Amino acid sequence: MAGMKQRALQTYAWFERRLGLTKPLSEAAAHPTPPSSASWWYVFGSAATVLFMLQIVTGILLALVYTASAGEAWASLQFLNHSIYLGWFLRAIHGWGSDFMVAIVLIHMVQVFLFGAYKYPRELTWIIGVFLLLFTLGMAFTGQVLRFDQDAYWGLGIGASIVSRVPWIGGPLVHLMLGGPIIGGQTLSRFFVLHVFVIPGVLLAMVAVHVWMVLHLGVNEWPMPGRIVSKATYDREYHELTSKQGVPFVPDAAWKDAVFAAAILLSVIACALFFGPFGPSGQPDPTIIQTAPKPDFFFLWIYAVLAYLPPELETPFLFIAPIVVIGGMLLLPLVAGEGEKHWSRRPVAVLMVAVIAVTLGVFTHLATFTPWSPLMEAWSGDPTPTAYLKGRSPLERQGALVLQDKQCRNCHALGGVGGMRGPALDAIAARMTEDQIIRQVLQGGGNMPAYGNALSPAETRALVAFLMTLRGNNLSPAIDASRTLTQSGAMRIPVPQAPSAKTP
Amino acid sequence: MTNANEPSGQPQPQISPTSTAVPELRTAAHSRRAFLFKLSLYLNGAVGAVLAVPILGYLLGPAFRKDASYKFWISLGPVSNFPEGETRLVDYRNPVTTESDGETGNVACWVRHIQGNQFQVFAINCAHLGCPVRWFEQSKLFMCPCHGGAYYEDGSRASGPPERGLFQYEFSIAGNNLMINAGQMPTLSNSACLKKPLVQIAPNPSAKDQEETSWPA
Q: Rounded to a whole number, what is the distance in Å from the CA of A135 to chain B's nearest CA?
């Protein structure tokens, strides 16, 4: 036993003599950390790194089977899901790992922002962190493309359509993105190269620099209200703090990082087990047009924004907003590199986080049920509520048929079922008069197409007759206030009674 | 954003003043070895520049290809396949494909036979962001499932976020066949659209979109 220990030590010494890594590594591990920073709030960065490692390992394993060819990628994913032993599980871990990684990177960023950790001397650490976020999102997007299904195919179409709006060089950029005239084999190869070689390589290098800077500059101290960061005094204060009270990062702080990383990995495994892999959905055949493509979770908010932007604002917004947002994030530490770190003294920062979180949350929520999209099958699939047909005249019932047949339900709900693109029609006659309904149906407007060419006079008459019976819970019908006056003759051309300034 | 009064972590060794002050160091900076080292850097820079030309050419090749080089006249089948007054979905194989394209090399389009030799061939891609539009015969509308773009039967914009009407292919009748000039995914930046303003919502869509929607890209 003693001999074996002796031999192990000798082997270690042999390697150490040649590698010389023990000293720098143990110094890095034991670098003094402010005791308050050995906190559960400081675990997100390391968790993101651990997830990145998980993605690399599972990604390499998936690449053993995946075929990066537009003609075969989808089939190879089916093969992974159904024919390769535990292939579905590896796909599930990679997919859920990606969602967790984006989430943890975002949480890490919010924590760093609220703790003022981007201030002097950690400005560059933040700036590199912004790029790490962008490249992480780049991995999520390109990974979604490699899951080469209908969503990926039409997602690429959306990407190309956005790129085509770039002024002057849009056309060449689209060709550069697609690698050819259409979305096809070369497009998938390009995104494969980005997802597997280019972005991970850049990410690895930037993570290394990011971590090195944390070691070099030290872990951010716990912010205290009133403790002002100043370039003139910070270095001395931080040095005093760590040299007097500092604790070694390993083990005093590192055990929390390790426990959290293990919990996150377990969560990924649990999600993978319970919810399984993401897709693939339908095969990427562009002649199958019965599809409503949707992006992955972290891009849903963009989907919603693109639906709500007014058309004339869309192109400028698409290209100006990212520059402003990313530019703002990059410039933040350079503009606000000193001053208060504590969130209780930075109300604007807290407000910004709250507003951005609520905004993104609302857009994401909206994109889960896409109220702006017509429901393509509603006209043939959603029945007219029977209560709306009781006691109706034949003409009115004929109108109910017209309503179904002309696909009105794709955009208008009845009894809570149907599209949400236009207003629900349950109480339409309580809000609009007969004349207004006729005008709206025939001429459209306010985001509704005109149906003048698609309806015969008889169909229009029946449809409007039916719509006039829809008054909700027996609300009184909408009336044209001027009509009774006109009929009774009370409304005449006003004759000036009182003398005015203009009267001679 | 380096600040002049920003304290540096460690005192930096001041090299330049000393090297110019001490004559030996100054001559060392101009020694044969220093010259050769600089020369080797320039040499590698030059080789790198030479190497960059084919690399950039390879990488940017697709960007410089002209739209016209992708366009070919292809047949959508005999005219009798398209009854007058109807709009039908047709699939065709893109004229330019590679072995690895697989089923993505197939393209769908909508053919509207107005009457006689009058046709309209619409691209499947919504003019907003390229999703596949679907034709509804009864309401005479094309609807997009993504962001709710809608078009009338002549392809002009009806409502929703699209800036313009549906893209159209050039067509001709050769013998008894309906031919279209196609080959690349239609976007707002294809050759026909470049001259026009990016935002094309006309106050009177029926008048303006008629001339705008032809898409010989």
A: 21
